[in-house]
Structure formats: C-alpha cells, structure tokens
Known about the structure:
This protein is an alpha+beta fold and about 280 residues long. It contains eight helices and twelve strands. A hairpin with a 4-residue loop joins strand 5 and strand 6.
Amino acid sequence: MPLLGGLFGPAEAVPVVIPVAASAPVSFRVYYVPGYPPLLPDELRARAAAWIGAHVDDPLCSALLPALASLSYTDMAKTSFPPPLDALRSASVGAEERSRLETAWQVAVVGCDVRPQVPMLGLWAAIAAGRSAALELGGALFDATAGRLTPLASYRQRIAGDGVLRVADHAALPAEADPARAGVWRTRGMAKFSLPEVELADAPAGRDFGLHLELLAQQLLDRLLTANHGREQPVAELSLPPEVTLVLPAGATPVRLFFPPRQAGPAVLVGVLPT
C-alpha cells in the first residue's frame, strides 16, 4: 500500500543556489629586484602586447590585445604585499623561484576585474601580463588569488587560442586533505571565476580525493559559463541540482551539494561523498 510518497508524489529536489558576482578582482604579483632605469607601466603594457603576439594562438590572441587597456599596474615595496610563508614551504616551489622571492624587495602588481563569461578576456590578459612582467623584471610570479607561486617554465608557456578554462590551471588543488580539518579537501582560487571555493567534506582518510575535487570544481565552472553564454550581463546566481555525478576512471560517483551560510572566510560550496 503506498504511503505518503505515493499519495502526494515524490519529494521535489530543492536546487542549491549560489550567488555569482558580476566581476571579480584578479591579481598577479611579481616580486623582483629593480634595475635601472625602472620599467614604467606603459612600457610593461607594451611588452605584454609583444608577449601575447609571441605566445598566444588565434583567435584569442587578437581579442586579448584590446583587453590590456583594462589592466592596472602598481609598483610598491615588497613589505606592502609580503608573500605568505606557506607559498615558500610548498614542495612545488623550485629553488630559483624561492631565491627570487626571498631576495626581492619590490613588487609589481598586475590587476584586473574579470567577468565570468567566455572567453574571460580579463583573466587571460592578466595571466599574459603577469608572465610578461616576470620575464621583463626577472622576478618571481605569484598568483595572489590561488595563493601559489607560478613555475618559471610557465613564463613562456603558450596559451591556446580556444580560451578553454581548466580549473587545474587556475586554482590551487591540494595534494592531500587539510591537515587542520580531517577529511576536508578544498580548492583555492575559484574567486577568479566569481565562484565560491569548492570543498569535499567527510572524505575517508588515506585516499587521494584530488581528482574528485578537480572534477567537482570543473563541473561548477562549466555550469556557470554555460549559464552565461550569450548573455550581455552575467547571471547573478547559479542554480545547481542537489546532487551531481562525477565520472571517474573507477566509475561514476554521486556527490550531494550544500551551500552553507557564510561564516568567516570565503564562501564555500560543500560536496559530500557517499558513505
């Protein structure tokens, strides 16, 4: 005999709604020892245009050049923006990057407000200008939003012309669970896309959930960019299903989503794995 579910129908799945800012500030910092004569913002902007011409494929290359005008260049003492100590402690930081960061006493900040719409020209322009400035100034490039140093090899890395955004290229993904919070894996840098950080909670100890986190964050970004496609103004909020599926090499895994009220720190979208 059917119970309440049969009488009234199945319970309706309530979507998870997250706010989306119309734009987000993105900045890259170059820590360096100044030479003489110093390079002024207009000179750095001109050299960024040359970097784009040499390292960015079309059609993105042609679209990026006008976007350079929206960038800001600010130069100040390193003490104004001291690099976080955890950036130096990271195992991924090479000896040369560490040396440049430690010996620097000046920092050039390249900034831009980025709209979360394909192809996110502001973000690509800031990346190109940051890499170019790091080469011209002989400094260490720090991604302030993701909180990590950029490898020297990337300063001349080509940017594909399709402008496809892969979360792993732009946000920091941990190699292990948060040592201060058992079973928690969290991104850092999703604010570049006007999105909350993504967190996996209650993950069993002793297993690598880095790919789960990356796929969940990528799915969130793809949903936002799809929602904004063809719109003059970005959406103010994004509606997500209460459960999504991650396709992993070992098979599909469902993840339940929650967007808890914001406390201290950044907003976080929480995914809970099946027990």
